[in-house]
Amino acid sequence: MRVAIVGAGVIGVTSAFAVKNAFPNFDVKIFADAFSPDTTGDGSAGLWGPFLLGDTPVDNITRWAGCTHQWFEQLWKAGLSSKTGVSLIPGTRVTSDYKDDIDPKWTKIVYGFQKITDEKLRRLNEEHKSNYKQGWQFITYTTEPVLLLPWLMKRFIALGGKIEKRNIKTLHELAEEGYDLIINCSGLGARELVADKTMTPIRGQVYRVKAPWAMHCFIVDDDSCNYIIPNIHSVVLGGTHQEGDFDRSVREEDSKHIYNGCCRVMPSLKGCQIIRAWVGLRPGRPRIRLECETLGSSTGKEIKVIHNYGHGGSGVTLCWGCATDVVEMIRNLKVQELNSKL
């Protein structure tokens, strides 16, 4: 079977590797106009944690996120951290929006979860000059795409996978070239590729700084969107989540918001060396699209398309869980094909 993957971000590359690994005899090829280190994911901090997922069903998010968390754990335990960028890190997540007394489902997946006490919240509010209503402490993973993607790509190619730098305009291009299955991991590009106008950019601006003393991530989960996420060689300071904004240029007002907000949370960051500012456009959608459909072609042959895009700010968090679902969909398609021949 000839399989085309469209997109080489964290969703596309994990899907390609998972498919080639599960079906060694398949001819699998990735098509993309950008590869690592030039994808949106390469600029991200890679923190595991569901974020900006619209009304995607919580049970699906929990299943995909849990599967990915287990995969990161396997990579970490296998001694592959230096190659894959997987780090175990303590974290704190706070919010000024008190919704209810039920902890989010992701808290059942991370290690060492505990709710922040009222007394500690009071102290944090005094220190940060904030109004946090609730918060959680836990231990989880960061997985840096700038390391993970080349490692996965190398393994994918070693299995016989292929890549081609090419901007696919329509899925019909690939159907006409004789592909039997197309896996659409085009992210924000789905706006044009499959005319999905529900796709919208969620602009994210960050700083990367030198601050080796920062060893704990802190996320303010509200409109300020400030966060501090240590990576292996730098610390990521954020951020913004500006929906519908296509501007990829660095804005001075956002830079000030990020720096001042993060220094308020962690005063020791004042005067730290700034490596660079970066802007990426997250692939926002009302809910993740992970489903199969049939595409016609000029030859009359019907092509199966598996869509796997619209992961908002959670590409790293959900990548392996969604790739696992893609593999399962292909298995179901093969069963259906066999049954149709009986």
UniProtKB/TrEMBL annotation:
Its main location: other. The keyword Flavoprotein applies. D-serine binds at residue 313. D-dopa binds at residues 227, 282. Pfam families: DAO. GO terms for biological process: D-amino acid catabolic process. One of its GO terms (cellular component) is peroxisomal matrix. One of its GO terms (molecular function) is FAD binding. Keywords: FAD, Flavoprotein, Oxidoreductase. FAD binds at residues 45-47, 312-317. The keyword Oxidoreductase applies. InterPro entries: D-amino_acid_oxidase_CS, DAO, FAD-dep_OxRdtase. It comes from the Eukaryota. PROSITE patterns: DAO. Its cofactor is FAD. Residues 2-328 form the FAD dependent oxidoreductase domain. It is found in: Peroxisome matrix. PANTHER family: D-AMINO ACID OXIDASE, D-ASPARTATE OXIDASE. Belongs to the DAMOX/DASOX family. This is FAD dependent oxidoreductase domain-containing protein. It comes from Lasius platythorax. The lineage of its organism: Eukaryota, Metazoa, Ecdysozoa, Arthropoda, Hexapoda.
